[in-house]
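Handoff note, outgoing to incoming analyst
You'll be picking up this chain. Sequence as last confirmed:
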Amino acid sequence: METIGTIKEIWRYPVSSLGGELCSDVLVGRKGVEGDRQYALFDPATGSVAAPEKDARWRPALFLNSAIDAEGARICFPDGTWHHVADPRLPPMLSDHFGFNVAVGRYMEPDQRTVSLPQVSNRYGVAPIHVVTTASLKKLETFVPLARIDRRRFRPNILVDAKTDAGFAEMGWIDETVHFGASMCKITEPAKRCGMTLVAQPGLDEEAEVLRSIVRHAGRSLGVYCDILKAGMIHVGAIVERDA
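Most recent structure output, in case you need it:
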């Protein structure tokens, strides 16, 4: 096998469209990072799931954060307060944050804690894992020198510190088998980028030139999607290899 980098960061996003949490290690199962994108915010009046990239009224979602503790998934507000997803106090607080009625739904089957949450349509059916490399971020910086190219704009599950700085490195891995620690994946397709890459979020201003540059120089793609061939634990610092 050929070493192509190391795992620099692992991200999990328990509630889709919200900020996520950095993990030092995590189980990658057949459906992806354990605990990733299990829940979503939605409008009870229409049933529509939050889509900040399409609808500006959902953009306050980027100023909320989500994480998992011993009691399950929870949401953090800008003032630092946390509430678990099934907390009955949460919907009124979300509605105040957005300025219209908002509730939490689940993508998966309920457990004892979340049986009260309705099931909603999953917006994330492309692939279980999303990978971005440091090489791609550095390349993008050459096209947008005045903008801060922060990996948070792209919501990767795995940020790979690539062995090469040449171009958009992960595009050369498509259709190949890549090993992330104990997990083995098939790189399936480029990740097409949307308006989420340019909108403001904590510590990052709105920057339209980020998406414009990806469209001009990378066919609108940055990062890749993966299917899971072998489940296993992954950890920060693990070697990333591809089959020779």
